[in-house]
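Re-run with default settings, no changes from the original entry. Doing this only to confirm the output is reproducible before filing.
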Amino acid sequence: MENIGQLIKQISSVLIRDMNKRLKAYDITFSQLQVLLILKESNNKMCQKEIAEILKITHTSLLDVLKILERKELIEKNISQENAKYNELSLTIKGREIIEHLDIGKDKTQEMMANVLGFSSVDEMLFKFKEVLTKLENGNY
């Protein structure tokens, strides 16, 4: 018996697998891309805990991704000037260059999904998905 949760999980798996294939040319994975994009959107400075909260994963789950990104010289860690207990992460020049040159077909996939689901735009679809997520997280269903 199919249910919405199972279908969403399957769609997610296919989207991530497809994205990882396209990202192979840049030698990064979807998980690594998410961190790079978060750092880009945060004006290039953020602590590990904040990234984990945005991705809704544990800090320990994030550590392996960060180690790989550091080894690839895409991010760097520095001790926070505001709080010595925290490491601030930032993009390296190499990390910024990868993000600038990405051609991952995200828009086409989102446009197809919005069209199939009957939304007038990708923005409308994203808004509705965020609304559903917020309601689920808050127990408002």
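The longest helix spans residues 4-23. DSSP finds seven helices and three strands in the chain.
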